[in-house]
Amino acid sequence: MKLEDVRTIAKSHSIKLDHLSKTGLIKAIQKDEGNFDCFATARNGECDQADCLWRDDCFDAAHKLTTRGELS
């Protein structure tokens, strides 16, 4: 999902956009919706949240963090 789309969703949740990355915005949206703020933490392509709006982006972000050594 494009950053502008994420920002639009964040605005609809009254989340302040100041200085938040795409990951930060998504985690804030997840928390506001009453969900775990687990974006970009899927390890080994495993996640039990099959209906999550962020699922595809989550796997991509987690993979990037893992290959950079930021997620173990």
Protein topology:
Blueprint: H1 3-12, H2 22-32, H3 55-67
Salient structural properties:
72 residues, mainly alpha, 3 helices
Q: What do these coordinates show?
A:
- It is built from three helices and no strands.
- The chain has helices spanning 3-12, 22-32, 55-67.
- The chain is globular, with a radius of gyration of 12 Å.
- It is mainly α and 72 residues long.
- The protein has one domain.
- Helix 1 (3-12) packs parallel to helix 2 (22-32).
Total beta strands: 0
Structural class: mainly alpha
Kindly report how far apart the N and C termini lie.
24 Å
Radius of gyration: 12 Å
Q: What can be said about the biggest beta sheet? A: none
Shape, per Cα inertia axes: globular
The overall average pLDDT, rounded, is 91
**SSE order, one letter for each helix or strand:** HHH
Give start-end ranges of low-pLDDT stretches: none
Number of individual domains: 1
**DSSP helical segment count:** 3
Helical content (DSSP H or I, runs of 4+): 40-55%
Proportion of β residues?
A: under 5%
